[in-house]
Specification:
mainly beta, Porin, 19-stranded mixed beta barrel, 3% helix, globular
Protein backbone atom coordinates (compact mmCIF):
# COMPACT_ATOMS: atom_id res chain seq x y z
CA UNK A 1 0.00 0.00 0.00
CA UNK A 2 1.23 3.49 -0.82
CA UNK A 3 1.47 6.33 1.65
CA UNK A 4 -1.37 8.76 1.13
CA UNK A 5 -4.23 10.62 2.82
CA UNK A 6 -5.86 7.49 4.21
CA UNK A 7 -9.54 6.57 4.22
CA UNK A 8 -12.38 8.95 5.08
CA UNK A 9 -13.00 6.97 8.28
CA UNK A 10 -9.53 8.03 9.49
CA UNK A 11 -10.53 11.71 9.68
CA UNK A 12 -10.87 12.59 13.36
CA UNK A 13 -10.21 8.98 14.40
CA UNK A 14 -7.27 9.73 16.73
CA UNK A 15 -9.31 12.15 18.84
CA UNK A 16 -12.36 9.86 18.83
CA UNK A 17 -10.28 6.87 19.94
CA UNK A 18 -8.77 8.78 22.84
CA UNK A 19 -12.25 9.80 24.05
CA UNK A 20 -13.93 6.39 23.58
CA UNK A 21 -11.47 3.48 23.32
CA UNK A 22 -11.17 1.22 26.39
CA UNK A 23 -13.94 3.05 28.28
CA UNK A 24 -16.42 0.36 29.32
CA UNK A 25 -19.19 -0.23 31.83
CA UNK A 26 -19.23 -4.04 31.81
CA UNK A 27 -16.91 -6.93 32.61
CA UNK A 28 -14.93 -8.59 29.83
CA UNK A 29 -12.27 -11.29 29.68
CA UNK A 30 -10.47 -12.30 26.49
CA UNK A 31 -7.72 -14.86 26.02
CA UNK A 32 -5.67 -15.27 22.83
CA UNK A 33 -3.25 -17.95 21.76
CA UNK A 34 -1.37 -18.89 18.59
CA UNK A 35 -0.75 -22.32 17.05
CA UNK A 36 2.31 -23.50 15.15
CA UNK A 37 0.32 -23.32 11.90
CA UNK A 38 -0.12 -19.57 12.33
CA UNK A 39 -3.75 -19.62 13.52
CA UNK A 40 -4.54 -17.11 16.26
CA UNK A 41 -7.44 -18.21 18.49
CA UNK A 42 -9.31 -15.78 20.76
CA UNK A 43 -12.00 -16.56 23.33
CA UNK A 44 -13.90 -13.80 25.09
CA UNK A 45 -16.73 -13.46 27.59
CA UNK A 46 -18.67 -10.31 28.45
CA UNK A 47 -21.09 -9.64 31.30
CA UNK A 48 -23.28 -6.54 31.17
CA UNK A 49 -25.90 -6.12 33.82
CA UNK A 50 -27.40 -9.57 34.34
CA UNK A 51 -26.68 -10.77 30.80
CA UNK A 52 -23.64 -12.72 29.66
CA UNK A 53 -22.31 -13.30 26.16
CA UNK A 54 -19.20 -14.72 24.61
CA UNK A 55 -17.55 -15.74 21.39
CA UNK A 56 -14.67 -17.75 20.03
CA UNK A 57 -12.67 -16.54 17.05
CA UNK A 58 -9.90 -17.77 14.81
CA UNK A 59 -7.60 -15.61 12.70
CA UNK A 60 -5.44 -17.07 9.95
CA UNK A 61 -3.15 -15.32 7.46
CA UNK A 62 -1.81 -16.90 4.31
CA UNK A 63 0.24 -14.67 2.00
CA UNK A 64 -2.06 -11.72 1.23
CA UNK A 65 -5.25 -13.39 2.53
CA UNK A 66 -6.60 -12.89 6.06
CA UNK A 67 -9.42 -15.09 7.33
CA UNK A 68 -11.32 -14.09 10.49
CA UNK A 69 -14.05 -16.40 11.84
CA UNK A 70 -16.08 -15.81 15.02
CA UNK A 71 -18.77 -17.95 16.66
CA UNK A 72 -20.95 -16.35 19.36
CA UNK A 73 -23.19 -17.82 22.06
CA UNK A 74 -26.19 -17.72 19.70
CA UNK A 75 -24.34 -20.06 17.31
CA UNK A 76 -24.01 -17.33 14.71
CA UNK A 77 -20.87 -17.56 12.59
CA UNK A 78 -19.34 -14.30 11.36
CA UNK A 79 -16.68 -14.60 8.66
CA UNK A 80 -14.49 -11.86 7.22
CA UNK A 81 -12.14 -12.39 4.30
CA UNK A 82 -9.54 -9.71 3.57
CA UNK A 83 -7.48 -9.76 0.37
CA UNK A 84 -4.55 -7.33 0.20
CA UNK A 85 -3.20 -6.27 -3.21
CA UNK A 86 -5.53 -8.63 -5.08
CA UNK A 87 -5.29 -5.73 -7.50
CA UNK A 88 -2.27 -3.46 -6.88
CA UNK A 89 -2.85 -0.83 -4.16
CA UNK A 90 -6.22 -2.29 -3.14
CA UNK A 91 -7.76 -4.10 -0.21
CA UNK A 92 -10.90 -6.22 -0.68
CA UNK A 93 -13.04 -7.18 2.33
CA UNK A 94 -15.93 -9.66 2.18
CA UNK A 95 -18.00 -10.37 5.29
CA UNK A 96 -21.10 -12.42 6.03
CA UNK A 97 -22.90 -14.18 8.87
CA UNK A 98 -24.48 -17.62 9.02
CA UNK A 99 -27.45 -18.21 9.19
CA UNK A 100 -28.19 -14.49 8.57
CA UNK A 101 -27.27 -14.40 4.89
CA UNK A 102 -28.73 -10.90 4.49
CA UNK A 103 -25.80 -9.54 6.51
CA UNK A 104 -23.30 -9.96 3.67
CA UNK A 105 -21.12 -7.04 2.68
CA UNK A 106 -18.42 -6.47 0.08
CA UNK A 107 -15.95 -3.58 0.35
CA UNK A 108 -13.13 -2.51 -1.93
CA UNK A 109 -10.53 0.06 -0.87
CA UNK A 110 -8.08 1.74 -3.24
CA UNK A 111 -5.03 3.67 -2.04
CA UNK A 112 -2.93 6.19 -3.97
CA UNK A 113 -0.24 8.68 -3.00
CA UNK A 114 -2.74 11.54 -3.16
CA UNK A 115 -6.15 9.84 -2.92
CA UNK A 116 -8.07 6.96 -1.34
CA UNK A 117 -11.44 5.53 -2.36
CA UNK A 118 -13.65 2.98 -0.61
CA UNK A 119 -16.85 1.37 -1.91
CA UNK A 120 -19.05 -0.93 0.17
CA UNK A 121 -22.13 -2.81 -1.02
CA UNK A 122 -24.52 -4.66 1.29
CA UNK A 123 -25.58 -8.01 -0.14
CA UNK A 124 -29.28 -8.28 0.72
CA UNK A 125 -32.74 -7.74 -0.77
CA UNK A 126 -32.55 -3.96 -0.26
CA UNK A 127 -28.88 -3.26 -0.97
CA UNK A 128 -27.18 0.01 -0.11
CA UNK A 129 -24.04 1.42 -1.64
CA UNK A 130 -21.58 3.45 0.43
CA UNK A 131 -18.88 5.47 -1.31
CA UNK A 132 -16.16 7.55 0.31
CA UNK A 133 -13.17 9.38 -1.11
CA UNK A 134 -10.29 11.49 0.16
CA UNK A 135 -7.67 13.58 -1.56
CA UNK A 136 -4.54 15.22 -0.22
CA UNK A 137 -1.46 14.06 1.63
CA UNK A 138 -0.82 12.50 5.06
CA UNK A 139 -0.59 16.11 6.34
CA UNK A 140 -3.71 17.62 4.75
CA UNK A 141 -6.84 15.60 3.90
CA UNK A 142 -10.24 16.55 2.53
CA UNK A 143 -12.92 13.98 1.85
CA UNK A 144 -16.59 13.05 1.59
CA UNK A 145 -18.83 10.03 2.13
CA UNK A 146 -22.29 9.17 0.80
CA UNK A 147 -24.75 6.29 1.04
CA UNK A 148 -27.25 5.42 -1.70
CA UNK A 149 -30.22 3.05 -1.73
CA UNK A 150 -30.90 1.95 -5.35
CA UNK A 151 -34.39 0.53 -4.65
CA UNK A 152 -35.74 3.82 -3.34
CA UNK A 153 -33.34 6.09 -5.21
CA UNK A 154 -32.53 8.13 -2.11
CA UNK A 155 -29.38 9.15 -0.32
CA UNK A 156 -29.17 7.52 3.09
CA UNK A 157 -26.31 9.71 4.27
CA UNK A 158 -23.77 12.28 3.17
CA UNK A 159 -20.81 13.54 5.14
CA UNK A 160 -17.81 15.79 4.48
CA UNK A 161 -14.64 16.31 6.44
CA UNK A 162 -11.22 17.93 6.54
CA UNK A 163 -8.15 17.08 8.58
CA UNK A 164 -4.75 18.66 9.24
CA UNK A 165 -2.16 16.31 10.70
CA UNK A 166 1.28 16.92 12.17
CA UNK A 167 3.66 14.50 13.91
CA UNK A 168 2.50 15.66 17.35
CA UNK A 169 -1.07 16.86 16.66
CA UNK A 170 -4.18 16.42 14.54
CA UNK A 171 -7.21 18.67 13.93
CA UNK A 172 -10.38 17.81 12.05
CA UNK A 173 -13.85 19.12 11.17
CA UNK A 174 -16.66 16.79 10.05
CA UNK A 175 -20.09 17.83 8.76
CA UNK A 176 -22.38 14.81 9.11
CA UNK A 177 -25.93 13.54 9.61
CA UNK A 178 -26.96 15.07 6.27
CA UNK A 179 -25.69 18.47 7.40
CA UNK A 180 -27.40 18.39 10.80
CA UNK A 181 -24.23 17.87 12.85
CA UNK A 182 -20.81 19.48 12.80
CA UNK A 183 -17.97 18.11 14.91
CA UNK A 184 -14.55 19.67 15.43
CA UNK A 185 -11.75 17.96 17.33
CA UNK A 186 -8.10 18.51 18.19
CA UNK A 187 -5.57 16.15 19.75
CA UNK A 188 -2.03 17.01 20.84
CA UNK A 189 0.51 14.34 21.80
CA UNK A 190 2.75 15.21 24.70
CA UNK A 191 5.48 12.59 24.28
CA UNK A 192 7.24 10.67 21.53
CA UNK A 193 5.50 7.39 22.41
CA UNK A 194 2.11 9.17 22.02
CA UNK A 195 0.82 7.64 25.25
CA UNK A 196 0.30 11.06 26.84
CA UNK A 197 -2.04 13.41 25.01
CA UNK A 198 -4.71 16.09 25.42
CA UNK A 199 -7.89 16.22 23.32
CA UNK A 200 -10.87 18.49 22.85
CA UNK A 201 -14.04 17.94 20.83
CA UNK A 202 -17.12 20.09 20.23
CA UNK A 203 -20.28 18.85 18.52
CA UNK A 204 -23.16 21.03 17.35
CA UNK A 205 -26.54 19.46 16.45
CA UNK A 206 -28.52 22.11 14.59
CA UNK A 207 -31.98 20.46 14.67
CA UNK A 208 -31.89 20.22 18.48
CA UNK A 209 -29.93 23.45 19.08
CA UNK A 210 -27.58 21.39 21.23
CA UNK A 211 -23.85 21.70 21.86
CA UNK A 212 -21.64 19.07 23.43
CA UNK A 213 -18.10 19.95 24.44
CA UNK A 214 -15.75 17.23 25.67
CA UNK A 215 -12.21 17.48 26.96
CA UNK A 216 -9.99 14.58 27.87
CA UNK A 217 -6.51 13.24 27.97
CA UNK A 218 -4.20 10.35 28.70
CA UNK A 219 -1.05 10.23 30.80
CA UNK A 220 1.65 7.56 30.88
CA UNK A 221 2.46 7.02 34.55
CA UNK A 222 5.28 4.71 33.49
CA UNK A 223 6.08 2.39 30.59
CA UNK A 224 3.40 -0.08 31.73
CA UNK A 225 0.59 2.11 33.10
CA UNK A 226 -1.68 4.68 31.42
CA UNK A 227 -4.50 6.70 32.97
CA UNK A 228 -7.20 8.47 30.96
CA UNK A 229 -10.04 10.86 31.81
CA UNK A 230 -12.76 12.80 30.00
CA UNK A 231 -15.48 15.29 30.94
CA UNK A 232 -18.23 16.92 28.89
CA UNK A 233 -20.41 19.97 29.50
CA UNK A 234 -23.35 17.73 30.46
CA UNK A 235 -21.46 16.55 33.52
CA UNK A 236 -20.48 13.07 32.34
CA UNK A 237 -17.08 12.19 33.82
CA UNK A 238 -15.15 9.10 32.76
CA UNK A 239 -11.82 7.73 33.94
CA UNK A 240 -9.79 4.58 33.40
CA UNK A 241 -6.53 2.94 34.38
CA UNK A 242 -4.80 0.44 32.09
CA UNK A 243 -1.80 -1.63 33.18
CA UNK A 244 0.30 -4.06 31.14
CA UNK A 245 0.63 -6.97 33.55
CA UNK A 246 2.80 -9.04 31.21
CA UNK A 247 3.94 -8.21 27.65
CA UNK A 248 0.88 -7.71 25.37
CA UNK A 249 -1.56 -8.49 28.21
CA UNK A 250 -3.59 -5.72 29.86
CA UNK A 251 -5.99 -5.17 32.70
CA UNK A 252 -8.28 -2.13 32.36
CA UNK A 253 -10.47 -0.58 35.06
CA UNK A 254 -12.86 2.23 34.16
CA UNK A 255 -15.74 4.18 35.66
CA UNK A 256 -18.36 6.70 34.60
CA UNK A 257 -20.02 9.28 36.84
CA UNK A 258 -22.80 11.81 36.21
CA UNK A 259 -21.64 14.83 38.20
CA UNK A 260 -25.07 16.47 37.80
CA UNK A 261 -26.80 13.50 39.43
CA UNK A 262 -24.55 12.38 42.25
CA UNK A 263 -27.36 10.32 43.76
CA UNK A 264 -27.01 7.85 40.88
CA UNK A 265 -24.64 4.91 41.31
CA UNK A 266 -21.46 5.28 39.23
CA UNK A 267 -20.87 2.71 36.50
CA UNK A 268 -17.77 0.53 36.64
CA UNK A 269 -16.08 -1.68 34.08
CA UNK A 270 -13.28 -4.23 34.16
CA UNK A 271 -11.47 -5.89 31.25
CA UNK A 272 -8.70 -8.45 31.13
CA UNK A 273 -6.94 -9.23 27.83
CA UNK A 274 -4.33 -11.99 27.79
CA UNK A 275 -2.13 -12.54 24.73
CA UNK A 276 0.89 -14.82 24.15
Amino acid sequence: MSTGPGLFSDIGKKAKDLLTRDYLTDQKVSVSTSSLSGVAITSSATKKGGLSAGDVGALYKYNNILVDVKVDTDSKIATTLTFTDLVPSTKTIASFKVPDFNSGKLEVQYFHYHAAVATAVSLNQTPTVDLSATIGTPTFVIGAEAGYEPNSGRLTKYTAGISVNKPDSSASIILGDKGDTIRASYIHHLDESKKSAAVGEITRRFSMNENTFTVGGSYAVDSLTVVKAKLNNHGKLGALLQHEIIPKSFVTMSSELDTQALDKTPKFGLALALKP
